[in-house]
Design a protein that fits this description.
The complex is a heterodimer of chains A (about 400) and B (about 300).
Chain A: H1 2-22, E1 24-30, H2 36-49, E2 53-59, H3 62-74, E3 81-85, H4 87-94, H5 115-120, E4 131-133, E5 135-144, H6 145-150, H7 159-171, E6 175-177, H8 184-208, H9 217-229, H10 242-250, E7 254-260, H11 262-270, E8 276-279, E9 292-296, E10 298-302, H12 309-319, H13 322-332, E11 335-336, H14 346-354, E12 358-360, H15 362-366, H16 374-386, H17 392-403
Parallel strand pairs in A: 1-2, 1-3, 6-7, 9-12
Antiparallel strand pairs in A: 3-10, 4-10, 5-7, 5-8, 5-9, 5-11
Helix pairs in contact in A: 8-9, 8-16, 9-17, 16-17
Chain B: H1 2-32, E1 35-38, E2 41-45, H2 49-56, H3 60-94, H4 100-112, H5 115-125, H6 132-139, H7 156-168, H8 170-181, H9 185-194, H10 198-209, H11 211-226, H12 230-236, H13 249-258, H14 268-295
Antiparallel strand pairs in B: 1-2
Classes of the chains: A alpha/beta (about 400), B mainly alpha (about 300).
């Protein structure tokens, strides 16, 4: 009996030392609870090609993800692989030294990604990239095709067209827009989806060059127009929360919805029978460049302290491959950041087409690096604008002076 | 000797538990507040710089004052709407007005609900298009009074206060009722020989005699008002929407320390400094309130 116990222990010990060579289990953390089934499918594809490596996909609630991840990383118990935020959110984690730098030597495919995509996962000061970007999102106008057809409406070519269409919808008892702005971040979405065209590419370029700030006439006039368009939002829209406004559109009570491309998959799930179309907000004149606002969502990063670096890099290279990008676009209905992906879904194809005329989603992309963040400022100021507590000029001035606290070009 | 060992064995585990999970976190929060933080990596010792930052430099100073002012308002408003109404309800129940048995349960029922449910329920009540509040107003010809309650800076905080009062009014009611039921019958008989006035009865007899209940209820309300978090978080969001009109210290601390999705990130230094300030403020003032209120309690 004693002998049996001894030999079992020896055998187990031998197995335990042999195991890491035989099978490596990687943990992979995410904030996308709703995508778990799809990711598990992607992982199966990877595991089939890479015997000996298994990946365990674990999800956490999106709003608490940053906290959970940072706490785990600080305590030394983080995952091997993880979803990382983009821009300022990435820098928080990367600057603390928790992420493995990625470049063309360990992830060759990164070189072919769009520069704007890679920039989203790169720390500005060191120019080191820490994650493989996964998707971009686009702020645009989604409309209900059936409602538009029934009322003989087409995608608008000018702001006047849009106003006429809205009047017509209103007259036939349909809410022109379903949007509400009680949920703070929705206010920023309204600016991205409606005002990007109105402020124009030249304003964005001047802003980045330090030649303009938010008191610029082009920006203020864009906000003035935005405020006018809210006339076609539901009654009491400033008290309407995000979930309710989504329901107004997906239930067919509203004809249009200003939102991100991430809404498309959700609306389709809520109401599979609805035919949707998308357009970029038109300008005052028919020839004005129609712009959408684009940003990158996040990326896949490797823990700098992982003991299974080789396996983790293999997986990250898989996540940067076109094969994965294609599955990502097909199964998750999102705009994959991997170059050369074909979109089977016609709406996604259209979004990719609209992205050719885009400016960045300004506050998220460029002004979330200091306190107060541009997004928080903008959300509050737009709530004031919509609530009648500030004029467009005041909004522009408050944004500029608020950001001057840390944004050097605005310091005078 | 065995007895001593036995006692030690009983005392050490809970003591260790409290030390590890109560004392240590509090002390470490104190310590965190004195360091600079780069994300989650602790930087150099900075003395009182984090405190100075949240109290005296912009934009933190304005945010701190704004949130603190709202907490003060919430405290006084709930003192009237929750504790005041609670006292009156308790008095009515104690006097056994018709339907008292039913109302004793009805008043306490919302207290049992979780804050999440109450938050969502009130968000539905206050929905600008389909909410029962606006629909009732329109239905009774008062459509002009229908408001986007949670979207206006003038009404949003009050909407939260009323939701909170509705949720919690049963608690002070119960405590006051228990206090009233402890008043000896002889005293009440004696009063009845002197006067029939309810007002005299309340102000001269009942109120002084339920002082111990008032101490409990006031102190808890004070602590609760300055730690207020769940309901604003659920109904207004972590940003204190609209434009910080519903911002309170709890939300502000949470955003600062842990970051919100639209913010620039986590700042444990400033967050810990806020946590320490909130803790000290509550501990000192609550101690003072308890001390002063205890002094006016009468032993029967």
């Amino acid at each position: 009996m004693k002998k049996l116990v001894c030999s079992t222990i020896v055998a187990l010990g031998a197995l335990a030392t042999a195991l890491p060579a035989m099978a490596q289990e990687l943990t992979f953390w995410s904030w996308r609870q709703e995508d778990k089934a799809q990711y598990e499918k992607f992982i199966d594809v990877f595991e089939a090609k890479n015997p000996g490596i298994t990946v365990k996909f674990e999800t956490f609630e999106a709003t608490n993800y940053n906290t959970i991840l940072s706490t785990a990383l600080a305590g030394g118990s983080g995952p091997d692989l993880m979803f990382a935020r983009a821009y300022g959110g990435l820098e928080n984690v990367a600057n603390a030294g928790y992420l493995l730098p990625l470049d063309k030597t360990n992830v060759p495919a990164l070189e072919k990604f769009a520069p704007a995509a890679v920039a989203a996962e790169t720390v500005r000061s060191s120019k080191i990239t820490y994650a493989v970007p996964f998707a971009s999102q686009t702020m645009l106008v989604i409309y209900n095709k059936d409602i538009f057809d029934k009322n003989g409406l087409k995608e608008p070519e000018t702001v006047d067209d849009l106003v006429k269409a809205a009047e017509k919808l209103k007259a036939s008892g349909v809410m022109p827009f379903g949007n509400g702005t009680a949920t703070a971040w929705q206010n920023e979405v309204m600016v991205g989806g409606i005002a990007s065209t109105l402020m124009g590419r030249s304003f964005y370029e001047d802003l980045m060059a330090g030649k303009a700030d938010f008191t610029d006439k082009r920006y203020v006039e864009a906000l003035t127009k935005l405020k006018e368009i809210t006339k076609y939002f539901p009654d009491g829209f400033i008290g309407l929360d995000y979930a309710s406004s989504q329901q107004l559109f997906s239930s067919g009570m509203a004809g249009m919805f200003v939102g991100g491309s991430y809404e498309l998959a959700n609306f389709k799930k809520q109401n599979p029978k609805m035919n949707m179309g998308i357009f970029a907000m038109p300008g005052l004149k028919a020839g004005d460049e129609k712009l959408v606002a684009q940003y990158f969502d996040g990326g896949y990063a490797v823990n700098a302290k992982t003991t299974k670096k080789e396996a983790a890099l293999k997986f990250v290279n898989f996540l940067a491959s076109q094969e994965f990008g294609q599955m990502f676009a097909d199964d998750l209905n999102n705009i994959s950041a991997v170059p050369g992906v074909n979109f089977k879904d016609s709406l996604l194809g259209e979004v990719a087409e609209l992205n050719k005329h885009s400016i960045p989603y300004i506050m998220l992309v460029h002004f979330r690096y200091g306190e107060p963040s541009g997004s928080v400022l903008l959300q509050g100021e737009i709530q004031k604008l919509f609530g009648g507590k500030a004029t467009p000029e005041e909004v522009g001035k408050n944004l500029t002076t608020g950001l001057a606290a840390w944004y050097a070009p605005f310091k005078k | 000797m065995a007895r001593r060992l036995w006692i030690t064995a009983l005392i050490v585990p809970p003591l260790a538990f409290v030390a590890l999970f109560v004392v240590y976190p509090i002390i470490s929060a104190f310590a965190y507040a004195f360091f600079q933080w780069h994300g989650l990596a602790r930087g150099e010792f900075v003395g009182f710089a984090n405190f100075y930052r949240v109290l005296f430099t912009q934009p933190y100073a304005d945010w701190t004052v704004n949130a603190f002012t709202h907490n003060v308002l919430v405290f006084f408003a709930l003192m009237v709407l929750q504790n005041g109404v609670g006292f009156l309800l308790a008095y009515c129940l104690w006097r056994e007005l018709p339907g008292a048995a039913f109302h004793r349960i009805a008043v306490f029922l919302p207290v049992v609900l979780s804050t999440i449910i109450v938050g969502f329920l009130w968000k539905l009540f206050l929905h600008p298009l389909f909410g029962v509040v606006n629909i009732s107003l329109r239905g009774t010809g008062l459509g002009g009074l229908a408001q986007p309650w949670l979207g206006q800076d003038t009404t949003a905080l009050w909407a939260l206060i009323i939701a909170n009062a509705w949720h919690m009014v049963g608690f002070p009611t119960l405590v006051f009722l228990a206090g009233m039921q402890r008043i000896p019958g002889e005293i009440l008989d004696a009063v009845r020989m002197e006067t029939e006035s309810e007002w005299v009865k309340i102000s001269k007899v009942v109120w002084p005699l339920v002082a111990p209940s008032a101490t409990v209820v006031f102190t808890l309300l004070f602590v609760g008002s300055f730690n207020w978090f769940e309901l604003p978080y659920i109904m207004a969001g972590v940003d204190g929407s609209p434009h910080k009109a519903t911002d309170v210290l709890g939300l502000y601390f949470y955003r600062t320390a842990f970051g919100d999705q639209s913010g620039s990130g986590q700042d444990f230094g400033a967050g810990s400094a806020l946590a320490v300030l909130i803790f000290l403020f509550i501990a000192i003032v609550a101690g003072f309130i308890t001390f002063r209120l205890r002094a006016r309690e009468i032993q029967i």
